[in-house]
Amino acid sequence: MVVVAGILNRFDRSERMQQRQVFRYLCHPDWNRRSMYADIGLVSLHAPFGIGDPPSNLQPIELPNHGPSGGERCTIFGWGQTREGRKQFQPVCLQKAERVLHVPGGTFCAGSFAGGVDACQGDSGGPLVCDGTLYGVVSFGWGCGRSQFPGVYTDVFVHRRWIEASVDSDPSTWNGGATVRIAAKGRRTVLGVIIMFSTVLLS
């Protein structure tokens, strides 16, 4: 598995792009496939990204000190589908959409109850950012942008202690990166967020 950073266009191979091999990965111990609780994980890289180095000027994102607030305007990012059912379409450039938070909790919902603004297939693992802080990670939803069905996000604050303890642990004890399987014709785009120089947060 390879992690790429520093680009907005998926096909950008300019000097802005930084690429690193995954060394190890770690799933949350409370991950539950049925309920989707703790839909969050970490990967450790073979080498750290160049943080702050031009031309990509990467920066790690801030982790939250509290849960999200209802009504707060936030932004999601992703290369996933821009409309439900468009299985063959995946945008080349990173997309973003503003979201309004409605239901705080262990996971939370975000979006407009009127529909039309949502993450979609291919956006899983992507960030929900409020004022420069990572509050949520795209988890799942019912379709894309449907009325009365906002998307569901993993609440990063709920898992902050686990994230920090894991980052401070020895990554050689994590699961081997060689066993990570990538589906979908041998290539799959999964979004993540740089939280440390050599650790990426995934869903």
TrEMBL record:
Q: What is its main location?
A: secreted
The record places domain Peptidase S1 at 1-168
Database matches in InterPro entries: Peptidase_S1_PA, Peptidase_S1_PA_chymotrypsin, Peptidase_S1A, Serine_Proteases_S1, Trypsin_dom, TRYPSIN_SER
Q: Which CDD domains match?
A: Tryp_SPc (cd00190)
Q: Name one GO cellular component term.
A: extracellular space
GO terms assigned for molecular function: serine-type endopeptidase activity
Which sequence ranges are marked TM in the entry?
none
SUPFAM superfamilies named among the record's database cross-references: Trypsin-like serine proteases
Q: What is this protein called?
A: Peptidase S1 domain-containing protein
